[in-house]
């Protein structure tokens, strides 16, 4: 069963929350996830100066070892969080827009 790690949108239109989920790639877009790995709320609350992500790095690494394919946006976030290195195989597959030449 091929699986993907991707973001799922939740919440009202101007207050979106993103869940990083593992989903069977053959299922529909809004299918029930196999597991929720992270919650990312891009909205800053009063008094906060940084956006935060709550994730389980052990479970993310587990799914990557099992062969789950992360989406481009997931690769970018995992690289910023230090879970993936900038030289990982996922960067070569998706291609980084800053390294592509015209």
From TrEMBL:
Gene Ontology biological process: mitochondrial translation
GO cellular component: mitochondrial small ribosomal subunit
Molecular function in Gene Ontology: structural constituent of ribosome
Any one Pfam family match given in the protein's UniProt record, by short name: Ribosomal_S16
Source organism, top-level taxon: Eukaryota
UniProtKB keywords: Ribonucleoprotein, Ribosomal protein
Family matches, as InterPro entries: Ribosomal_bS16, Ribosomal_bS16_dom_sf
NCBIfam families cross-referenced by the UniProt entry: S16
Family: Belongs to the bacterial ribosomal protein bS16 family.
Name of the protein in question: 30S ribosomal protein S16
Species whose genome carries this gene: Phanerochaete sordida
Higher taxonomy: Eukaryota, Fungi, Dikarya, Basidiomycota, Agaricomycotina
């Amino acid at each position: 069963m091929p699986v993907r790690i991707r973001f799922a949108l939740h919440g009202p239109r101007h207050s979106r929350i993103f869940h990083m989920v593992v989903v069977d790639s053959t299922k529909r877009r809004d299918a029930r996830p196999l597991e929720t790995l992270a919650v990312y709320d891009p909205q800053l609350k009063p008094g906060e100066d940084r956006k935060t992500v709550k994730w389980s790095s052990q479970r993310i690494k587990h799914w990557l070892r099992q062969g789950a394919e992360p989406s481009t946006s997931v690769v970018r976030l995992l690289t910023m969080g230090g879970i993936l290195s900038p030289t990982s195989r996922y960067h070569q597959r998706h291609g980084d827009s800053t390294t592509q030449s015209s």
